[in-house]
Design the sequence.
């Protein structure tokens, strides 16, 4: 069945692939973005998917933005919490700003985005919440104490909410991508990538955003009603849980 879906950070990287795949599956998609107007405008023109600009770290902005999406498209049945940033630094050099920015955008956003749509999902007895965590929330990563803490927190959030939503027809799951060929990963210095990361990926390559997107479509479907509280690892064999 065609549903209204919101994808945060939905105009670039993994989020753009998710938005496109959900649209291709027949859903009515809204993509949110935080700052890159040019990328968002190009994405909208290329895909026909409407874009909405707000900061997922801000509760009031999320509540108002989601209200607008519902006024434009209808009740939100699928939420993909994908937006995320990195501010990598070894912990002895990490600043409070680097810590807070990552926790606010990657972890507090889960509350900010999910809380305003949760009651509607409960009332309608249907919902799909999919959170894009990370391999680094599962295994930890030198240089990412902030990011790994947020991404591990995401998995706890999913497991708790899955229990609350189960009787109301809402599934809540996480996907933990490994290293995917997006701008975020390409920002890592080549020597760090070659020395510390690629040798640990048994498949010997980065993942594709489209591979993650296909799993989101699967979890978002009406038919997939019995998987909840799960974390699907998609990392080329780099870390097996
Ligand atoms: N594991 C173990 N040791 C590591 C390491 C790693 N992944 N990365 C770096 N080190 C070591 C270095 O070899 C170096 O040791 P030596 O001095 O003995 O050679 C030491 O740590 C300091 O490293 P740098 O010289 O690189 O320090 P820096 O201050 O210049 O940079 C950094 C620090 C920015 C964190 C950089 O190391 C880095 O970018 N690391 C990669 C972090 C990472 O994997 N980020 C993932 C981004 S993609 C993403 O987040 C998406 C996702 O979900 C997977």
Sequence:
């Amino acid at each position: 069945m065609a549903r209204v879906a919101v994808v945060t950070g939905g105009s670039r990287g993994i989020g753009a692939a998710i938005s496109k795949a959900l649209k291709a599956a027949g859903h009515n998609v809204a993509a949110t973005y935080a700052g890159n107007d040019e990328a968002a405008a190009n994405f909208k023109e290329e895909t026909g998917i409407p874009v909405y600009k707000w900061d997922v770290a801000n509760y009031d902005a999320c509540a108002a933005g989601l209200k607008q999406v519902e006024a434009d498209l209808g009740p939100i049945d699928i939420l993909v919490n994908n937006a995320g940033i990195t501010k990598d630094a070894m912990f002895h050099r990490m600043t409070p700003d680097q810590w807070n920015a990552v926790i606010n955008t990657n972890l507090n956003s889960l509350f900010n985005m999910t809380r305003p749509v949760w009651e509607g999902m409960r009332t309608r007895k249907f919902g799909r919440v999919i959170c894009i965590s990370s391999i680094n929330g599962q295994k930890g990563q030198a240089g990412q104490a902030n990011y790994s803490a947020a991404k591990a927190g995401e998995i706890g959030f999913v497991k708790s909410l899955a229990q609350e939503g189960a009787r109301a027809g809402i599934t809540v799951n996480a996907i933990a991508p490994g290293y995917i060929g997006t701008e975020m990963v390409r920002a890592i210095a080549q020597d760090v990538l070659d020395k510390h990361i690629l040798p640990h990926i048994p498949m010997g390559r980065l993942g594709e955003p489209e591979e993650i997107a296909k799993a989101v479509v699967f979890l978002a479907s009406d038919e997939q009603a019995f998987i909840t509280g799960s974390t699907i690892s998609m990392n080329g064999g780099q870390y097996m849980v």
